[in-house]
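Re: weekly structure request thread

Next one in the queue (122 aa):
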Amino acid sequence: MAYDERLADRVRAALADQPGISERKMFGGIAFLLDGKMCVGVLNDELVVRSGKERFDATLKEKHTRPMDFTGRVSTGMVYVSSAGVTRGAALQRWVDIGLAGARTAPSSARRRSTRASPKRS
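Done, posted below.
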């Protein structure tokens, strides 16, 4: 799978002033992480947004969205936004902001928690 480089560049620009952002190739696309937690990504020509579990149902009621079901199973708290939903800069920025909010409220993964809780060995 490939991803839309132009959309990825637009996401980079939308995140340019945000501290704590990193990129990682994931699921055949690219993911943008806030402090190690995915906030948004690009897969094919769609934007992937972490809405968070609390906003998931409301987010799905918006135009151009559908549940993220990359593995065939719905990932609650993650949505795809079609390219039609991010054609304008303001629309893309709104989705990026939703993704940032979702990442800020997402719990740390068990793996990260256990790694951070473990003392360093010499």
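The two ends are 41 Å apart (CA to CA). The CA atoms of residues 57 and 77 lie 9 Å apart.
Next request, please.
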